[in-house]
TrEMBL record:
Species: Haloarcula japonica (strain ATCC 49778 / DSM 6131 / JCM 7785 / NBRC 101032 / NCIMB 13157 / TR-1)
Chemical reaction(s) catalysed: tRNA(Sec) + L-serine + ATP = L-seryl-tRNA(Sec) + AMP + diphosphate + H(+); tRNA(Ser) + L-serine + ATP = L-seryl-tRNA(Ser) + AMP + diphosphate + H(+)
Pathway annotation: Aminoacyl-tRNA biosynthesis; selenocysteinyl-tRNA(Sec) biosynthesis; L-seryl-tRNA(Sec) from L-serine and tRNA(Sec): step 1/1
Signal peptide range: none
Region (Disordered): 43-81
Protein name: Serine--tRNA ligase
Length: 460
């Protein structure tokens, strides 16, 4: 969140951020008015408190001097001041609570290098990798959802039967390939000096608020034990939408030492989001689903190092695609498409050649976002109380947080199924993954199970 002092002293900068990020439903003037009333009440309360202290200090002297009538007047005045002060403090506390809630609705300030734009069409492509030496592909690449069903790697029908739309079974060699991807990603990032964290899956509301998922994105998350009034409080639990939430909040309310920084954690987790059904044709297949696996990279750094670390984090996430030799591009996200909490964000998009639904390279295909690499500066740190002490004798200051997926597993799986597809309908296992699959080089699929897999003419 933004500090109230920053909002108070730089209202036009905040107003500009609200407009450039396309945030609606926020009345900055009302927030400034609440802040002004709160400060007036605090000042009035300080004055009453000082007067009460002065009156109280005279009561003993008056009694000692035998001035009982004046002493009683001082006692009566002290009680009046106490009552007035209690009333003002209650009103100030109420305003402060309103102010804190309102500040949570204000977006982070975009870094000066972020391109201005309204949506994804205004994002700036920074560079592409892997397109100079593309492998030979079939004349017609079969989309992953058809190929996955043909080889019995993906089962969407049974996933919907068990859990509803947006869920699936990953089966046989498909499941084995996904496990291989997860272990490969974790190993790559261990080489980059990331420390593994296996986080809890349910997270509380304080944690969701600390990273910015609440209150703005409550409708996108899955709750556990929701109240009948549909409000949330610190007793509620949520299925994590990303491991960013528990890992960032590991140190919530703590002070780290300068010697601790930078902290680099990686966490594998299942993730739960109400995403399916939002983007038309993308609802088909394993691209936009409610439950998916991801490896998340979270960094805690000194403020002066955060933008150098952002570039390093981008390279660390992209190295997975470099080693798998999957073509991809990096986008510098514009203000209208970068998100509520980020100060600067890059998206890494892998190329999947099986569908011609977006503007891909010359031969079609589409781009799939596999990582958002973000610098939040001190925005999350203020919400979560994440601080560090530059020197042991110095006061604590807010650190900067960064994160990025390293990577989103299903979409990398989709890219492999389509980019490493062969003319005969098999899939070549990328060389770096073969050791994780017992040396297997090609995925040929499995025979389907059940009467539904038998041709109609073969049924009894």
């Amino acid at each position: 969140m933004l500090s109230r002092q920053f909002v108070r002293e730089h209202p036009e900068t905040v107003r500009d951020a609200i407009e450039r990020k396309g945030v609606t439903g926020v009345d900055l003037d009302e927030i400034l008015e609440i802040d002004e009333k709160w400060r007036e009440l605090k000042a009035e309360g300080d004055g009453l408190r000082q007067e009460r202290n002065e009156v109280s200090s005279k009561i003993g002297e008056l009694k000692q001097d035998g001035k009982d009538e004046e002493a009683q007047e001082a006692i009566d005045r002290s009680q009046e001041l106490k009552d007035e002060l209690q009333d003002i403090e209650e009103r100030a506390d109420e305003l402060e609570s309103q102010l804190e809630d309102a500040l949570l609705e204000l977006p982070n300030i975009p870094h000066e290098s972020v391109p201005t734009g309204e949506g994804e069409a205004d994002n700036v492509e920074r560079y592409r990798e892997g397109f100079d030496d593309l492998r030979d592909l079939p004349d017609e690449v079969v989309p992953h959802y058809d190929l996955g069903e043909d080889l019995d790697l993906l089962d969407f029908e049974r996933g919907a039967k068990v859990s509803g739309g947006g869920y699936q079974f990953v089966k046989g060699e498909g499941a084995r390939l996904e496990h291989a991807l997860i272990q490969f990603m974790l190993d790559v990032h261990r080489e980059q000096e990331y420390v593994d964290v296996l986080p809890p899956i349910p997270v509380n509301s304080d944690s969701m608020e600390g990273t910015g998922q609440l209150p703005k994105f409550a409708e996108d998350a899955y709750r556990v034990g929701a109240r009948q009034d549909d409000d949330y409080d610190s007793d509620d639990l949520w299925l994590l939408p990303t491991a960013e939430v528990p890992v960032t909040n590991m140190y919530r309310g703590e002070i780290l030492l300068d010697d601790d920084l930078p902290v680099k954690h990686q966490a594998f987790s299942p993730n739960f989001r109400r995403e399916a059904g939002e983007h038309g044709t993308e609802t088909r297949g394993y691209v936009r689903v409610h439950q998916f696996h991801k490896v998340e990279l979270v960094n805690f750094v000194r403020p002066e190092n955060s933008y150098d670390r952002l570039e390093g984090l981008l390279d660390e996430a992209a190295e997975v695609l470099d080693r798998l030799e999957l073509p991809y591009r990096v986008l510098d996200m514009c203000t209208g498409d970068m998100g509520f909490t980020q100060a600067k964000k890059y998206d890494i998009e892998v190329w999947a050649p099986g569908d011609d639904m977006e503007d891909g390279p010359d031969r079609g295909g589409r781009w799939l976002e596999v990582s958002s690499v973000s610098n939040f500066e001190d925005f999350q740190a203020r919400r979560a109380g994440l601080r560090y002490r530059p020197e042991r004798h110095e006061s604590a200051d807010y650190l900067h947080t960064l994160n990025g997926s390293g990577l989103a597993v299903p979409r990398v799986l989709v890219a492999i199924m389509e980019y490493y597809q062969n003319d005969d309908g098999t899939i070549t296992v990328p060389e770096p993954l073969q050791p994780y699959m017992g040396g297997q080089e090609v995925i040929e699929g499995s025979e389907k199970i059940g009467e539904s897999a038998v041709g109609a003419g073969e049924k009894e």
